[in-house]
């Protein structure tokens, strides 16, 4: 396997080298470009829960790749929100790794001044989404749930095929501090239409480098404002909001509890900090620790965390059941995870948000909002609209009325 070492200067402009069908993930630490598919991680069709045994199947796939002569193979791909749906993971034929994207490589967004015309369908319609939030609030009031994350989707259709490479470039340029990704979703020998998962997530689910583990849950948010004064007011309001601080604490506690059995030591800050994207302010907590056992892989940690209350709710299983009952669409890989893992167990997994599934001339965009007892349905609808702006701006769409 061809693997380029990390360095301070990119020897290859890997964003330009991306082609539809490749695996691409840029993070604040490095950039990975995987080309081709040497081996696909098998699906266990006899099991209802596709997460069971997945780490063993990945480990076996990596060992097989090594026996076939691949040096330092990695598994890359995406895992869906619903544990009953299969993961989409494979070992690329070649992998290029280098430093994080540089400004000279990303440059500025282009081709968004005259975006193609899209026919837009809201799924569900805004009024139905508000009704769903009200159902979630009723379950919280009854004591059935503490929190539920409810999402909606936009279906966009154009007369021309979507320029995935340009869309990826624009996402990378607009979200330099986050995680920009593209994953091929085609099934070998079964796909007629090219299908890709593409996005720019602000949220690290978990990374492992040796014994060092980092998770960075986000929960609680505010839309950005073009007015600097108003923008700062919103950030300060978020940092002092009892509703958002409670929502954030629920997520951080759940992440820490899920990681603790694997850790020799763990550090959890007492209070969150703020991070920002082009479109949103988020409450953020970086949980760090040291693994107790070196054989615990990044994928095993990611599965233990998935899904966090930031994308599902609490208690997790009840929230998941309620989501499947309330939401009128299949989330697919939205609120799942995208990432990679090598034979040593090192790797990085990102929460799949601010994303779209792209299939020729069609896109499905997704956004969700965390609902707690103090939530107001109209505000949750507005939050999803703000979160959709990451993808819409990259497409050159600056206004969404609903």
TrEMBL record:
Residues 127-387 form the Chorismate-utilising enzyme C-terminal domain. SUPFAM superfamilies: ADC synthase (SSF56322). Its EC number is 5.4.4.2. Residues 223-240 have a biased composition (Basic and acidic residues). It comes from the Bacteria. One of its GO terms (biological process) is salicylic acid biosynthetic process. GO terms for molecular function: isochorismate synthase activity. It catalyses: chorismate = isochorismate. Residues 217-240 are annotated as: Disordered. Keywords: Isomerase. Belongs to the isochorismate synthase family. NCBIfam families: isochor_syn, PRK06923.1. This is isochorismate synthase. The lineage of its organism: Bacteria, Bacillati, Bacillota, Bacilli, Bacillales. The gene is dhbC.
């Amino acid at each position: 396997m061809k693997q380029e070492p990390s360095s301070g200067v990119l020897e290859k402009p890997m964003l330009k080298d991306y082609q539809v069908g490749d695996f691409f993930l840029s993070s604040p630490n490095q950039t990975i470009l995987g080309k081709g598919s040497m081996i696909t991680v098998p699906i266990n069709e006899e099991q209802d829960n596709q997460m069971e045994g997945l780490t063993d199947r990945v480990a076996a796939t990596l060992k097989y790749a090594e026996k076939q002569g691949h040096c330092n193979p990695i598994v890359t791909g995406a895992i869906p929100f619903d544990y009953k749906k299969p993961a989409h993971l494979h070992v690329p034929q070649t992998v290029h790794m280098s430093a994080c994207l540089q400004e000279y490589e990303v440059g500025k967004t282009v081709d968004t001044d005259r975006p193609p015309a899209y026919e837009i369908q809201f799924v569900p319609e805004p009024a139905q989404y508000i009704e769903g939030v009200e159902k979630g609030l009723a379950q919280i009031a009854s004591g059935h749930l503490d929190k539920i994350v409810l999402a909606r989707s936009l279906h966009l259709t154009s007369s021309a095929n979507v320029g995935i490479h340009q869309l990826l470039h624009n996402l990378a340029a607009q979200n330099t501090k986050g995680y920009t990704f593209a994953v091929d979703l085609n099934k070998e020998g079964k796909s007629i239409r090219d299908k890709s998962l593409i996005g720019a997530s602000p949220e690290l689910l978990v990374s492992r480098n040796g014994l060092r583990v980092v998770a960075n849950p986000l929960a609680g948010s505010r839309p950005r404002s073009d007015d600097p004064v108003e923008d700062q007011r919103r950030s300060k309001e978020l940092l002092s909001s009892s509703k958002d601080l409670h929502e954030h604490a629920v997520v951080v506690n759940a992440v820490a509890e899920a990681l603790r059995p694997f850790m020799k030591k763990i550090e959890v800050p007492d209070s969150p900090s703020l991070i920002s994207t082009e479109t949103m302010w988020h409450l953020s907590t970086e949980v760090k620790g040291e693994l107790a056992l070196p054989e615990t892989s990044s994928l095993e940690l990611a599965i233990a965390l998935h899904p966090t209350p930031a994308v599902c709710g609490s208690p997790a299983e009840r929230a998941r059941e309620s989501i499947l009952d309330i939401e009128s669409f299949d989330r697919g890989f939205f609120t799942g995870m995208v990432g990679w893992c090598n034979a040593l167990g090192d790797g990085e997994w990102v929460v799949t948000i601010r994303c779209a599934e792209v299939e020729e001339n069609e896109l499905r965009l997704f956004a969700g909002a965390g609902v707690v007892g103090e939530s107001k349905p109209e505000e949750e609808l507005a939050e999803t609209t703000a979160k959709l702006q990451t993808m819409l701006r990259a497409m050159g769409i600056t206004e969404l009325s609903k």
